[in-house]
């Protein structure tokens, strides 16, 4: 009898490890599929540099043809099915959402749903879904060259099919328009952009684990965004679980309406739905949403909050399970991004809680629920990550999007604790972990 196998799309990253560990513990072989063979080698290097992690796991590597992703996926699945029974498919890469949904339907596996995947990859279609409501910002679609000819005094420009804040700019005065044009000079003049009203308000995200079009559990994280000089890029610099406590009942009701409409009208089947929104004076305004593993370290925030294993829950959904056990958060958790100027040039990369993916010798990164306690307030640091090369630590490049942030720390603390400001928490984390000489 053939062994069962689960495929992970976009898997050439150490972030797939907890998915792999759970699936292997369930007796599955795990097929890792992605586009870049160099990243496959990086993942193998990661395993070598972390002997306690991502080793002794039943995995295989399958690199896709980026020029013909869907046909390449089907061909790879045919190879896998020659040796294994294909039992599930989950996706953690934005670029593979649509192809993964199509492949799941062809193969008869629990999938996201093709319409849901398609709408999630197109901000214009997302706006159209709520055009008759107050939840969508005022928005028009233009080719970039046309949009730049008639910019209002304040507003937002965003490409319809990018992610990670790439190409998104905000401005608040006519004096900033020249900087807007400069920031978007590398995009094609024919690229399609949304020109939208600028929404002021606190920013949040909602994560919903969905099985067979029904919500298993959902929670809200509050975001912080980095202000930038001149024009602004909506780059997230913090995420915090327990944000439901700060939301009014009216806001929660509006979120329920939004969530139900997305699921029912785009036919979301099996997915993590990640919805980004602002709460303005006029209510909830949708920024964007996707149907895949959320970015940054949001999944780890849930993991460290000790409510449930978010990786195991998504994997179980994608393999067709229907009975789930989810409990309330035991801790508040927060991720804070910060500048590389914060004494990082003296870090010890071998510290077990240090994650340094571009380091020449060490990568690190140990997901440990216990972490290290920093203070009497029971503030615990779980990870400190460095996202720059060693030689770039003192250069502090300009943070333009979510791919050019410098470093982060993930902390947890008791539900009723109100910790110090972010700067003090960062300082305590670095010193408390004894990373500085």
Contiguous uncertain segments of 5+ residues: none
Structural class per helix/strand content? alpha+beta
The residue fraction in helices comes out at 25-40%
Give the biggest beta sheet.
Answer: 10 strands, mixed
Q: What does this molecule look like?
A:
It is globular and about 65 Å long. The model has no long low-confidence stretch (mean pLDDT 86). The chain is 27% helix and 27% strand. Strand 10 and strand 11 form a beta hairpin. The chain is of the alpha+beta class. Helix 3 packs across helix 4.
Short description:
The protein has helices at 17-25, 37-49, 69-81, 97-107, 114-120, 123-129, 144-149, 177-183, 249-266, 298-304, 310-318, 422-432, and strands at 3-9, 29-34, 59-63, 84-91, 139-143, 155-159, 169-171, 192-196, 202-211, 214-226, 235-241, 271-280, 283-291, 332-338, 354-355, 372-373, 380-386, 407-413. With 437 residues, it is of the alpha+beta class. Strand 9 (202-211) and strand 10 form a beta hairpin.
């Amino acid at each position: 009898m053939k062994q069962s196998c689960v495929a992970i799309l976009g898997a050439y990253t150490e972030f797939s490890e907890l998915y792999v560990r759970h699936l292997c513990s369930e007796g599955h072989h795990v097929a890792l599929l992605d586009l870049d063979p160099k990243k496959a080698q990086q993942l193998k290097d990661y395993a070598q540099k972390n002997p306690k992690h991502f080793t002794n796991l039943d995995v295989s590597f399958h690199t896709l043809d980026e020029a013909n992703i869907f046909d390449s996926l089907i061909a790879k699945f045919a190879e896998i099915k020659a040796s294994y029974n294909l039992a599930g498919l989950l996706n953690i890469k934005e670029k593979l959402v649509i192809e993964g949904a199509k492949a799941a339907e062809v193969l008869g596996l629990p999938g996201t749903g093709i319409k849901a995947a398609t709408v999630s990859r197109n901000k214009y279609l997302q706006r159209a879904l709520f055009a008759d409501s107050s939840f969508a910002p005022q928005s028009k679609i233009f080719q970039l060259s046309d949009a730049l000819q008639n910019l209002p005094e304040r507003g937002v420009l965003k490409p319809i099919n990018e992610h990670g804040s790439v190409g998104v700019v905000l401005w608040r005065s006519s004096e900033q328009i020249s900087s807007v044009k400069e920031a978007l000079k590398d995009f094609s003049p024919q690229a399609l952009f949304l020109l939208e009203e600028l929404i002021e308000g606190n920013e949040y995200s909602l994560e919903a684990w969905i099985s067979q079009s029904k919500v298993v559990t959902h929670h809200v994280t509050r975001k912080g965004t980095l202000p930038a000089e001149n024009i602004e890029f909506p780059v997230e610099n913090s995420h915090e679980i327990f944000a439901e406590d700060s939301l009014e009942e009216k806001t929660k009701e509006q979120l329920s309406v939004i969530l139900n409409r997305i699921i029912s009208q785009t036919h979301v089947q099996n997915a993590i739905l990640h919805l980004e929104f602002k709460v303005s004076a006029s209510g909830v305004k949708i920024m964007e949403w996707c149907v895949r593993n959320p970015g940054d370290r949001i999944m780890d925030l849930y993991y460290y909050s000790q409510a449930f294993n978010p990786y195991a829950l998504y994997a179980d959904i994608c393999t067709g399970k229907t009975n789930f056990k989810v409990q309330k958060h035991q801790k508040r958790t927060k991720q804070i991004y910060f500048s590389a100027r914060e004494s990082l040039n003296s870090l010890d990369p071998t510290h077990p809680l240090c994650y340094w993916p571009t380091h020449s010798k060490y990568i690190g990164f140990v997901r440990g629920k216990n972490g290290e306690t920093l203070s009497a307030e029971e503030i615990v640091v779980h990870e400190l990550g460095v996202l720059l090369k060693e030689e770039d630590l003192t250069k502090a490049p300009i943070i333009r999007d979510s791919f050019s942030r410098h470093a982060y720390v993930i902390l947890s603390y008791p539900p009723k604790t109100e910790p110090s400001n972010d700067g003090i928490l960062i300082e305590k984390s670095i010193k408390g972990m004894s990373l500085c000489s």
